[in-house]
Amino acid sequence: MSFPREIWPEDPTPSEATNCPKCELFLQRSRIIWGEGNPNAKIFVLLDNPGSREDKFGEPFICGTRQTLYLATTLAGLRKDDLYVTYVLRCRPVRKYDKEQARITCIKYLQEQLTLKAPRLVVCLGNVATQSFLGNSDAKVKLLRGKIDYYNGVATAFSYHPLAVRRRPVLYKLFLEDWKLITSFYHGKILTDSNTNLR
Question: Residue 118: is its pLDDT beyond 50?
Fold first, then answer.
């Protein structure tokens, strides 16, 4: 299995957020990572928080999360310019913190981005991203994947976190199925109303 080696460009943090003190991660972060890829893309991919690769500016390698994500999206027929990757938390946690408070605080940045950029589709990867986006701590990817629904007027899809897919290879088939569904929707091959199950 070969992986794309290209590193997508990082999106600069807006000036009004560069010194954000709104949660306790302010005291432990090394920097803020706003996102990567095409900031004007119509597919927003939401992950839980930046990893160690993202936290080290200019790292010349692609982490496991990116390898798995890039491979699936490429095989599904998407281009790098179709995607923008961002996070619930814009800082990498390095020690214990109030997770609920930080996620509630940081998700407001995503809400502002969605209002400003108006993507066609949001893809939540993993339970943390899913629960934070929906504001529902009981939401589970395994129950939501395989369909596209509308939440707050935004078409939304759900799938497993790429690291979960790497740890449990049996999930890769489902992960790729989800990205093929997303690609079909993106290219207008699937029309959906709210709460339409597309399995």
Answer: yes
